[in-house]
Each structure stands twice: as C-alpha cells, then as structure tokens.
Amino acid sequence: MSRSDADGVELSVRAAEKRDAGRGVARIPERARRELGVLSGDTVVIEGERATVAKMWPADPSVPETVVQIDGDTRANAGVHVGETVTIRPKDTSTIREAERVTLSPPPSLGEDDRRLASRDVAQKLRNRPVRAGEQIRIEGVSQDPFTVVDTTPNGDVRISSATAVRLGADAGANGGAAQGDAAAASSPGTDAASPPSEGTTGPTYEDIGGLDEELEQVREMIELPLSEPELFRRLGVEPPSGVLLYGPPGTGKTLIARAVANEVDASFETISGPEIMSKYKGESEEQLREVFERARENAPTIVFFDEIDSIAGARGDDEGAENRIVGQLLTLMDGLDARGEVIVIGATNRVDAIDPALRRGGRFDREIQIGVPDEAGRREILEVHTRGMPLAEDVSVETIARRTHGFVGADLDAVASEAAMAAIRERPTDADDREEWNRDPRVTRAHFDTALASVEPSA
Ligand code: ADP
C-alpha cells in the first residue's frame, strides 16, 4: 500500500505510457493525488536514490493506487528502476524560479544541421518544463536521445519560460565525460551536488516497446531479479536462470526487449550472431564464444544476446559437424557461469523446434517466451512509439492505421512511420517561401501514411 509521511507518498515505479515518454510527467493515481494535495500540471518532486522533478498528470483509473508511472529519463534522473519505490512530494512552486539561462548539451547522435534546427526549437518545446542541472531530458520531435542539462541560472530547480535563454553547448558524449563533468560541477549544493549526474540512457527503454507488456513482464521477472539482487538467490540457495529463449518471427522486438532490459538494469550488453559464428573457420568460432563470455564476466552484470541461435544450435545430427562443436562450447560456457546470475544469455530464434534439445534443458535456456506477431492493439501501441516524436496532422488516426496493418510486425510499422516522414519531406512545397514556412512547422498527414502503406509490405 502507499504510505504517506508528513508530506510525501511512497509509490512503486512503473514504466510510462508510450505516449508520455519524453514529456517529464508523472502519472499519479487519484488517491495519492489527493493525499499530496496537487492538481494536474503541478510540479512534484520524485525522490529515489536522487531527487528529480516532474509534472503531475492523472493516472488511468485502471492503474493500481500504489503505482507512479514515469519514463526512462525521469527514472534515470531519480536513480530508480522499475519496481522500486520512490517518495513523491508536492513541490512548492513558489520556490521554482523562472530560469534566466539554461545550457543543454545535445546528444552526440544529433548532427550539425539538426543541432541548428534544434536550437530554435528547444526553448519553445521545453516551455514550463521544470529542470535542474545534471539531469537528462528528451525533447520530443528533436531527437530520440536525451539532452543533458549542463547549467542553469539561477541554480536549483528552475522552470523554462518564454524569457529563458536556452543555449546548446558541446555535445554530451563526443568528448567523453567532459560535459558530464561540467554538469556535476555546475550543480549547486542546493541541487544535490554530491550525487553524480545521471548516467545517460541512450539505449531503448521500456517505453520504446509496444504491445508486449506481458512478454516484457516475463522477461523482466527472469532477468532483473538475478541481475540486480544476485545475493538474494545465493542466500536462498537457488540457482538463478542462465538463459532465456525468445522465439517468434523476425522484426517483432526480440532484440529490442533484450537491449531495453540491459539498459534498464544498467547491465552491459554483448551480442553474438549465430550465422556470423557459423561462418568462422574451425576453432575460431569457439574462441570467439569464449571471448564474449570472458568479457561478459569481466563487465558483469551482462546480458549476452545470441541472435539467430538456431543457426548454431540446430539439432545435433552427424557428430563431427561445426554445429556440434559450437553447441558443445556454448553448453560448457553456460554451465560454467557460476551460480551468481550475473551473466544471463538471451537467445533469439524464429524456429524454436530447430534448437538442440540439450540447450533447452535445465539450467540453460529453460524458459521460453513467445514474441508473436502483434494484434491490432499491439500495432497501435507500436505505432504510438514510432510516431511519438512526429508532428502529426489532425487527420492522422493511429487507430485506423493499426486496423489497416494486419500482418505488420514492429519493424514494418517502424518502416511505415519513417516512410510517412520521408513522403512528407518529398512532398514539401517547392516555392522557397512556402517551403521555409513548412520547414518551420512540418506536418505528416494521412496522405503521407497512405503513401507509406502502399510501399511497405507486411512480413507476416
Ligand atoms: P527481432 O529481434 O525480433 O528480429 P528487433 O527487435 O530487431 O526484432 O526489431 C527491429 C526494429 O523494429 C526495432 O529496432 C524497432 O524499431 C522495431 N520494433 C520491433 N518490434 C517492436 C515493438 N514491439 N515495439 C516497438 N518497436 C518495435
């Protein structure tokens, strides 16, 4: 149950709704909202290992009363993971000052041109957003990756207003930790100078996965606990799982889930491609497998993602084949993972039956989770993910597109969204003035989606 102290409420963290990602909002259930005495749009403080601020929005009534939904950046800023507990307090907004100046460092992935465009856009897009130095914020429609707040005048929690000068500084990653270091130096004692600046979540987060809530829940249950609390397993004397098999058609999100889980639990990520391993000379494949596992152990906790595992692990037929040797090596390596659960192998395949039974037995890949072709509701969520940063015209209905895309998997829907954006760019006005006006306020329309749908074939 939620517990309240003098002025705070403890809630358990859940991932945000797909449409909320990057908006700096905390969805809070009605009961907690009343306890806190806040209204929709008010700023709240979220305290995990660190403290951050977000705008309060109401939660859907179907969400349990004990839960707060916040996105990956807010989780990183508060130093919490999904499933952990945070304390929410109302923020006395009279203490949130208007920012005179805010310096952001753009994500390294943002090219020069985009950076120029962004500098015009960000101030407006961040209007009324509470920020503090050291935090990361995602800016919808500018980049998928987060910006870092390097510096604010005044210090502490500030609100960006129309009067705020927003400046883009050097990028956050290209020059290593420099920008991060600045961010730490810039935060005043009043803003938790002791706590390190949040580590960038540049990989995918749970909000980037559409239509796979139950599957993701299963994967998390298998993986998060052993990786985050290996000692718990040790104390209980049980062996944490060393492998999980995800099976389903290509493009349904198997890699995405593996990357997101690694990212959310701050684990390292190693990939092995089955076909690539198979193409090596005799002996080299085993060597490469050993190296990957060695690195995984050194950088633990680690998720090793073994893509198209069926290409090595096809049922062992004639004894001396390459498959036999490689499967043997993999079995040895997986059995050799000590029971600490700090390295977990996720295998992906679209042909679960083609996998060597020895690999599917106890202690290896002994859990199988199907990642199927999405249904209409799943397609809708996936489309919400991929159109999140897009300026959609009023006539675009994600529901209608979801209905019209039977047989499309996540990768196809991603392609539909990109194709629609490309169509919009191709069909820009030719007249220079009109074009400039369009560039300032671009729109992707229903007609652009029609063009995209005509060019993308469903995989399933
Ligand atoms: P798989 O590993 O199952 O072959 P991927 O995870 O590599 O598929 O998916 C490829 C791309 O398709 C992803 O990077 C993502 O852009 C998109 N995609 C696939 N499934 C989903 C999903 N369930 N939700 C959102 N995007 C998805």
From TrEMBL:
One of its GO terms (molecular function) is ATP hydrolysis activity. Residues 10-94 form the CDC48 N-terminal subdomain domain. The keyword Nucleotide-binding applies. Keywords: ATP-binding, Nucleotide-binding, Repeat. The keyword Repeat applies. Belongs to the AAA ATPase family. CDC48 subfamily. This is Adenosinetriphosphatase. It comes from Natronococcus jeotgali DSM 18795. The chain holds residues 1 to 460 of 730 of the full protein.
